[in-house]
Amino acid sequence: MRLILLIITSFIFSCSSYAAEDESSLPKSVFKFTPEIVAEVSNRLRATLKSQGGDVKEKLAFELIGSDVGYNMFLVLRGNTGSSEIHTTVSDLHTAVEGRATLVLGGELVDEYELSPGQLRGTSIKVGTEFKLKAGDAVNIPANLAHHVVIEPGEQYMYFVYQVDSATIK
């Protein structure tokens, strides 16, 4: 898992070239992303998921790891299959950390509704392509592409989502 985190960190964050003894001198958009931090956040997500109980429709916990204008980085833990979605201006780099899931891409949202401007949701996807994911797998999900994380009953799945919003970085 440490190797996976190292690869993700070096791929996503080019800020490692900063050399400063005093971290407070760095821009606020530069943040540490270490295996220890991931472990700490993972523990909080597991506790949150456990506290949700069995009557919650979508068992989901997530935490913002870092952000700047136009991007966000989240660590997400799912305890069941949630809703399908489309982001009209946001691309996701989805990277599996722990567990297994099926990522369904493309097709049409079933029972589509607008959650908020630019954020569409549905109950599933019709005529999508399935990708089996395990720790270390990464998939880029471009803006406007339907996607749905499907998890086997009783399983949990943890992943990073690095979101880039093309509307805010142009």
Explained architecture:
By secondary structure, the chain is an alpha+beta fold. It is 19% helix and 43% strand. It contains 3 helices and 13 strands; from the N terminus they run ααβββββββββββββα. It has helices at 2-12, 35-51, 166-169; strands spanning 60-68, 71-78, 84-87, 90-98, 100-105, 108-110, 113-116, 119-122, 124-126, 129-134, 138-141, 147-150, 157-165.
Provide the descriptors you would attach to this structure in a database record.
alpha+beta; 3-stranded antiparallel beta sheet; 3 helices; 43% strand; globular; disordered N terminus
Write the layout of secondary structure elements.
Blueprint lengths: L1 H11 L22 H17 L8 E9 L2 E8 L5 E4 L2 E9 L1 E6 L2 E3 L2 E4 L2 E4 L1 E3 L2 E6 L3 E4 L5 E4 L6 E9 H4 L1
Antiparallel strand pairs: 1-2, 2-13, 3-8, 4-11, 4-13, 5-10, 5-12, 6-9, 7-8
Query: H/E order of the elements?
Result: HHEEEEEEEEEEEEEH
What coarse outline follows from CA principal-axis ratios?
globular
Q: Looking across the biggest beta sheet, what order are the strands in?
A: 1-2-13-4-11
- Stretches where pLDDT is under 50 for at least 5 consecutive residues are 1-20
Report, as a whole number of angstroms, the end-to-end distance: 35 Å
Alpha-beta classification: alpha+beta
What composes the largest sheet?
A: 5 strands, antiparallel
Helical run tally: 3
Helical percentage: 10-25%
Number of strands: 13
Mean of the pLDDT scores?
A: 86
* Fraction in beta strands: 35-45%
